[in-house]
Amino acid sequence: MVLRSPNSKCTLVYMIVKLLLSSHQKNDRLQQVEMYIDTIRNLSATLGMESSMIITKVHPTLNELCGISKNISDTILAKLNSTVETLKEDKQKRTEKLYHLGKALTNLWNLMDTSYGDRRQFFHVTNLLRKSSSEVSDPGCLAQNIIQEVSQ
């Protein structure tokens, strides 16, 4: 027979509650990490960038191919947030740049009375004139090579 003090049940309940809270916090952090990673993947695709490289730069354990459990520290969450914000800013800048280039192309075509067939090559750029930055999400539509192609 094991002798227990009256407080041992309280201590056990306290430890179980603490363990459950810890487990809940871990699940919340893992969900946050997954949300950031999904956002990075989507933004990277739109920007024509390799998402796995970006994610691995934040921390190698975040790469699914790594096979190691993910680091979900406050520092990693802050780095993921910063990466997402940087990609969003880059998306906004590229959208604005292509918007201005598309507007200039349209004005030039109108002055030159350019045929629809000749304009079709840059439809993916002029189509952006009808979209807000948040609506621009097609893979590769804001890639650097697209911007360079239109700029020339």
UniProtKB/TrEMBL annotation:
Family in the record: Belongs to the MAP65/ASE1 family.
Keyword tags: Cytoplasm, Cytoskeleton, Microtubule
Subcellular locations according to the entry: Cytoplasm, Cytoskeleton
Protein's name in the database: Uncharacterized protein
Record's GO cellular component terms: cytoplasm; microtubule; spindle
Source organism per UniProt: Linum tenue
GO molecular function annotations of the record: microtubule binding
BP-aspect Gene Ontology terms: microtubule cytoskeleton organization
Superkingdom of origin: Eukaryota
Transmembrane segments: none
Pfam families in UniProt: MAP65_ASE1
Keyword RNA-binding: no
